[in-house]
Structure formats: structure tokens, C-alpha cells
Amino acid sequence: MKRVLILGGSGFIGGAIAEQLSKRGFEIVVPTRDRDRAKHLLVLPACEVVVANIFDRAVLQPLIANADCVINLIGILHGDFDRVHVQFPKMVAELCATNNTPRLLHMSALNADENGVSDYLRSRGKGEAAVRAALSKVTALTVFRPSVVFGAADSFLNLFASMLTVFPVIPLGSPGAQFQPVWVEDVARAVAESTHNTATFGHSYNLCGPEVYTLKQLLEFVAATLGKRRLIVGLSGGLSTLQAAVFERLPGKVITRDNLKSMSLPNIDSAAFPAVFGFTPSALSCVVPTYLGARKERISGRERYQNLRNLAGRE
Predict the structure, then answer these.
(1) Which residue, 31, 174, 285, is CA-closest to 11?
(2) What is the dihedral of CA 161, 232, 315, 210, to 10 degrees?
(3) 100 φ, ψ to 5°?
(4) Residues 6 or more apart from 265 whose CB is under 8 A from it?
(5) What is the Cα–Cα distance from 163 to 81, expressed in whole angstroms?
């Protein structure tokens, strides 16, 4: 395994994986429609950023043909789930099989299930099934199912931080939803280790951190880290649905009713972090204060609202 193609490599998780692979001496190719989104990767040794529409089969084919390993990280939280989570990974797997690409790493989601409770989780489950059905025996597959991923550039805790900076009172839908957040650097280490570790071939791994939080507890933790005293009002099931129905019609779609359905299942795993990766994941309570604690607050009201909007619209 020498040349790795990262689909979605310019994103939050993809950037961390690219850094890990670069440290290990891999050649990395990151296709993107917008070169500016991947400019932070240009400083990495042996990292090539190419402008390409990867949803075009004719464009994607030569990229996969020239790779020893393909990592598919493409995913969305709202939109055309079938196109992004089912049809695209199916095309990737078919091209890996056609070109005898020996290795495919596929990023799915915790609770992915073809018969899941939400369109998002059903599409993730169908995507996994489509990948397995399309692959030949010459391609080794590994699937990752992380809980919510946090880090300095995430669109999860940073969204909370922006909300807490702007609003004195936060009406919170699904306050009891459970999560087991995992640090992006730990996800990146697991994926990078799997590119060449034959012990991971053919397996699926749930990736979760060591701590479980409710959604309200996460918001309270961020508020305490920022030194903000805020009133967080947990909404009932009916009011949560009403709030999501309103928000999903606004620019950015902070939350949708389908998101609520996904959150109705605990986003946790009682099993230990996979021992095959050889490390223990870091706790959110230890990592987050190192970057949110230093968050700058001296910005104008207009900038705060724009930051909130931008974060809400990230995939």
C-alpha cells in the first residue's frame, strides 16, 4: 500500500487522515471540486490535490485505477442520501473491483441499518450492503462506523459554541439523546493503521470515545468550557419535532426531523475501542478544553451569526 486516494479528503475527517498517512510516508491523492477547500493539505509531503468531479464515473475511474488503496469518506447529514450514501459508494466499489484495486476503506455511521429508523441510517446501511455486493474477492474491505466525531475544526461542538455565544437561552430538542463522541485524531489513526494492517481486512469497526453524554450534557460542557452561563431548556418530543420542522426550512438546516429520528437511537457502543488499533481513545473532557477554552469571543454580532450559519451548513 503506497498510493492512497481519499474521497472526501478535503473535509474535517479527511484532513486528519491525510496528515496521519503523510506521517507514515504514503503518497496521497485528494480530489476536490474546489481547490481552495484543500489548500491546507498542500503543505503535506507527497500529497496531490486534483480538481475533479468524483461523482462522474469517467473522472473517478482513472483515479481509482492508479490507487493501491481507496478511502471513501463522502457523507451528508441532509439531502440526497441515496445518491451520496448508496449509489456513490456502490460506484466506488465497482470501480475498485474492475481495476483490481486491492484495498477499500468505507466510512459509514454508528447504527447504520438497511431497516433503520431514519432515512440517514437506512441509506448508510444500504450503502454498506451495496459496497459488499459490488466488490470482488481481490479487494479487501474495512468499514468504520463512528459515533459523532469532535475536534478543533468540527461542525458539532463549534456549532454549540457559536450558539452559546449568541443566545442567552437555548431551547434544545432531544436533550436526552445519547452520544459517545470520538476524537477526530483517533478516527484518523484507526483508518491510517487499517490501510496496511491485514488484521483489519474484512472487518467492520464501531469507533467511540470513552465517555457517554446526553445532548444537553454536551451543551452544558461547552458552556462551562467557554465560561458562559446559559439557560438550556430541554424540549419535549412534540416540541422537538416542531422545532426541527421549522429549522429544516431555514438556510443551513441546523437540525431536521430525520436527524431527530436518528437521535432516537443511542449513538453509543458498550464494547471497548477495537484493540487491533493498539491505542486507547482520548476523552472529550480532556481534549475539548485545549481548543474551545482558547476560543476568541471578541467578534461582532454580525460575524457571530455568520459563523453560526456557516457551521450549520457544513456536511
Answers:
(1) 31
(2) 80
(3) 55, 35
(4) 111, 116, 117, 121
(5) 27
pLDDT tens digits, one per residue of 89-145: 999 999 999 999 999 999 999 999 999 999 999 999 999 999 999 998 788 999 999
What would the grid cell of residue 128 be?
454498506
pLDDT tens-digit series, residues 67-76: 999 999 999 9
How many beta carbons lie within 10 A of that of residue 140, not counting itself? Answer: 19
The C-alpha angle with vertex 87 and arms to 105 and 144, in degrees rounded to 5, equals: 25
Given a contact cutoff of 8 angstroms between Cβ atoms, the answer to whether 176 and 275 are in contact is no
Segment 188-228, tens digit of pLDDT: 999 999 999 999 999 999 999 999 999 999 999 999 999 99
Q: CA-to-CA distance for 79 and 205, rounded, in angstroms?
A: 26
pLDDT of residue 61: 98
Residue 246: is it exposed, middle or buried by C-beta count within 10 angstroms (0-12/13-18/19+)? exposed
CB atoms within 10 A of CB 154: 21
| Global pTM value | 0.91
Terminal C-alpha separation, the chain: 29
Residues in the chain, total: 315
The residue with cell 478511502 is 71
